[in-house]
Every structure is written in structure tokens, then in C-alpha cells.
Design goal:
The chain is mostly beta strands. The protein contains four helices and 24 strands. The strands form five sheets. Strands 4, 9, 10, 12, 13, 16, 19 and 20 form an eight-stranded antiparallel β-sheet that branches. Strands 5-6-7-8-21-18-17-11 form an eight-stranded antiparallel β-sheet. The protein has a three-stranded antiparallel β-sheet with strand order 1-2-3, with no helix packed on it. β23 and β24 form a beta hairpin. The chain is globular and about 45 Å long.
Length: 345
């Protein structure tokens, strides 16, 4: 493991697969780690993809999800192949992917600044089209509330993540976030379905012209906030993965509970690479669902861990101004914290 630290925060990066299995800030642990990550029987099972064996924290997927074009592993080389450490100081580590993605060279920089965890990926060269997404996961022992930057649409996939365990009806496209359920009721993704056995996925589309996109998870039992920030011009969608005990097969065995993946990316949801490279429901809205390799592409992403101020339940606005991240709660109160504003330049 590669360790970096700043103030009362520390991060461990696993160069075997390029993920972040540990991030701690003042005793808070914002990211989720799969319970089987160190079980020998899972690690030795050739039928389990390496990204699932080592499932933890945050990592880059390229391509995102199923590669039904080239037959590569789920979430691609960036989530399954080793990364080489090329530079490190106390609070920053830089890596290069040992292999590549369709001929592209990929580098990763992970930097800690106070309560913020900043990640930058640079993709150089290569040829062909590819999807991509960050894959941070948090876990809620007793559920929580989720709020978002303005969205213009919400979608569900045409097929279920796990048959019989979906929260939402399939193949929806809505102009709001009140997604339909099979029984005719609705469930807004702003509330985590803590009391339901669920395996599901939905895609939220950023508002037109947005530059800074964000998701905030206020965890009930943990009494904290996990804020995920993105460059909305590069990552135009946010895919939410809800995993709450429904996968009853190894290595999941119904013990993967309370997990929310906040997967900011460029893809046609969870439909696979082929669907993302073709005309689809999102491209019909003018939203790109794949990236053409060749030129240099820069993917910027950040997460912030904070205690939840008393009485806060939902964010309505997040802005970057004068080196601070300003958070506004639904009741009108606000909080400003230092943030390296140039990260998203």
C-alpha cells in the first residue's frame, strides 16, 4: 500500500488495482470496503473478477461496466491491472497504469488537502471509443439522505441488476427524480432504501451548461457528510448503484449492505460499452456517452468528508468561490471550507 497524509487525514492506495481502500479524516471513514477483500477463498477464486475481489473505496473504470466490444474485464484495465508508482511526497502520489486502455497511456494523481481527497487522471493517445467513470462507494449503517446538483433527467436500465431485487421499474426516462416502482408508487433516490433488500442502478443527467456537479450523502448513524465533486463537462452523468443485501451468491452472500456507489462518468448507464458507443437515449438528448481516444483527456474528481452540522438534512447548493467550498443547507444555513479552487481549472 502507498500511504499519503495531510493534517488529520490519511489515504492508502493499492497499486495492484489502483483503488483507494482507506481514507480517514478525524476518525471518520467515508469509503466502503467489501467484507471479503482479505478472505483467501475469495482471493483464490478464478471466477471472480479482480475488481470485485479487491472491491473498495474509489477507482477509475475505463471502460465502465461491461466491455461487450473487446471482451475485457468488467470496469476495464484501470480497475483490474497494476499501477506503477512514479512519484510521491507526503500528501501526493502519482501513478501510471502498467498496461493501457486501447493503446492509451493513463496516469493517476491522488492528493490530500485537509478534508478533501483530490484525484486527477490523464489519458493520452490510443484509438477507439471508450466509456469511463469514477467508482466511489460509501456505506450507511442506518441509511441516509442524498442530495444532488440540478439534474435534467433520470433513467433506469432496460435490464435488472439482480432479477427480482430492483427498487425501480425498468427502462424509465423521466424529467424529474421521482422514479416509478413496479407497484406504481415512486421512490426518489434522495432517500437510501435502508429497509429494503435491493440491488439497483439509476442514471442522473446533469443540467445543461453545468460546470461543477456534486452529490452529498448525509449518513444517519455516522452523522457525517460525504460530498462528491466532479467536472460536469467531462462527467455529464451520475450513476447511483444501490447494493443492500440482495446479491445472495458468492462472494456477496447477502452481506453487502447499506452501500451506495456514486459513479460520475460518461456512459449509457449500466448498459455496456456497445450501447454507449451507439445512438441511445442519452445521445438523443445531446449527452455524450463515450470518449474518443487520441487527444489528451483530463478527468478531475474530488471528495470531501465533514461532520454533519446539527439540524442539517439536505444540501441545495454547492459553489466554489475564492478558495472555499460553500455548502448551503435546505434551511438556508451555510458552511464554507477551504478547497483548492484550481483543482477544477
Amino acid at each position: 500500500m502507498i500511504r499519503i497524509a495531510h493534517g488529520d487525514a490519511e489515504v492508502l492506495i493499492d497499486p495492484r488495482v489502483g483503488n483507494i481502500p482507506h481514507w480517514q479524516v478525524s476518525g471518520r471513514v467515508p469509503l466502503h470496503v467489501a467484507p471479503w477483500r482479505d478472505e483467501p477463498e475469495v482471493q483464490d477464486d478464478p471466477t471472480v473478477a479482480l475488481v470485485d475481489k479487491r472491491l473498495a473505496g474509489d477507482f477509475l473504470c475505463m471502460p465502465f461496466g461491461r466491455d461487450d466490444v473487446h471482451g475485457g474485464p468488467i470496469h476495464g484495465p484501470t480497475a483490474n491491472d497494476p499501477w506503477k508508482l512514479v512519484a510521491q511526497d507526503a500528501a501526493t502520489a502519482r501513478f501510471a497504469l502498467s498496461t493501457g486502455v486501447l493503446g492509451a497511456h493513463v496516469t493517476k494523481e491522488v492528493r490530500l488537502v485537509g478534508s478533501s481527497l483530490l484525484t486527477t487522471h490523464v489519458v493520452d493517445g490510443g484509438s477507439g471509443d471508450v466509456t469511463f467513470a469514477h467508482h466511489p462507494m460509501t456505506r450507511m449503517a442506518e441509511g441516509g439522505r442524498v442530495s444532488f446538483s440540478p439534474k435534467r433527467a433520470a433513467l433506469t436500465d432496460p435490464t435488472a441488476q439482480h432479477e427480482g431485487a430492483n427498487l425501480w421499474a425498468l427502462n424509465q426516462l423521466r424529467g424529474d427524480l421521482d422514479l416509478d416502482r413496479e407497484d406504481g408508487s415512486q421512490w426518489n433516490p434522495g432517500t437510501y432504501p435502508a429497509g429494503h433488500v435491493v440491488e439497483d442502478f439509476c442514471t442522473l443527467v446533469e443540467a445543461r451548461g453545468a460546470t461543477l456537479g456534486w452529490t452529498c450523502v448525509m449518513r444517519n448513524a455516522e452523522d457525517d457528510m460525504v460530498i462528491v465533486l466532479k467536472d460536469a463537462q467531462v462527467l455529464p452523468i451520475t450513476m447511483l448503484w444501490i447494493s443492500n443485501g440482495a446479491r445472495d451468491f458468492p462472494p456477496w452472500n447477502s452481506r453487502h449492505t447499506g452501500v451506495l456507489g456514486i459513479e460520475d462518468g460518461c456512459a449509457m448507464g449500466g448498459e455496456g460499452l456497445a450501447a454507449s458507443c451507439a445512438d441511445n437515449r442519452l445521445t438523443a438528448m445531446g449527452v455524450p456517452t463515450c470518449l474518443s481516444l487520441g487527444p489528451r483527456h483530463v478527468i478531475r474528481h474530488a471528495m470531501v468528508s465533514l461532520p454533519r452540522p446539527p439540524g442539517w438534512s439536505e444540501l441545495t447548493e454547492v459553489t466554489l468561490e475564492s478558495g472555499h467550498l460553500r455548502l448551503t443547507e435546505a434551511g438556508g444555513s451555510f458552511l464554507a471550507i477551504p478547497f483548492p479552487e484550481d483543482h477544477f481549472d
